[in-house]
Amino acid sequence: MKLMTFTVIATGISVLVLTAGCGKTLQERIKQAEGSAPEEKRTLEQSEQDAQLEYLDEWSAFRSAAEEQLASNAKSIDDLKLRLAKSDDEVKAKVGSQIEALTAKNSELQKRLDSYRDEGKLNWDAFKRDFSHDLDGLGKTLKDLTTDNK
Question: What pLDDT, in 10s, does the model give residues 101-111?
Fold first, then answer.
């Protein structure tokens, strides 16, 4: 009998402690969450706007640098064509097709740069990586072609 009384009292105290310790009611927690939702939404919208502005700045800087590099490549190719015109037929046959391939590649890169449209951050990262790789490869090939390996 004493054990049963002790169990009932212990259970009652446990229930009281648990219910009293819960603090706010469900309605109070819902009101608090509703109050903070507009502030969080404004913060999210602001961070999205900041990311878009950052992306546009990055795009314009990348485009300017790429256009400068493409113009520099075009000038180097024109210089090569002038040097090639003064050389003998054997060199013209050997290097002429390479110069035409470089001209085509430079034009293709310019078209890719001009036709890029905003398709999201993931696509921008992929475009930037691939375009930079191709542009660097063209620059390296051009440099190797202009270097005399005598």
Answer: 999 999 999 99
Coil, strand or helix at 93: helix
Encoded tokens for 145: 């072609």
Q: Would 5 be classed as within a structural domain?
A: no
Neighbours of 122 (CB within 10 A): 8
Cα-only R_g, the chain: 35
Q: Which parts of the chain register pLDDT below 70? A: 15-26, 31-41, 148-150
**Domain span including residue 128:** 30-146
* Rounded Cα–Cα distance for residues 134 and 84 (Å): 25
Task: Tell me if 19 is assigned to some domain.
Answer: no
Tally of domains within the chain? 1
Q: Decide if 142 is inside a domain.
A: yes
pLDDT (0 to 100) of residue 16: 61
DSSP 48-59: HHHHHHHHHHHH
Per-residue model confidence (pLDDT) at position 150: 43
Rounded Cα–Cα distance for residues 84 and 98 (Å): 11
Residue 25 belongs to some domain of the structure: no
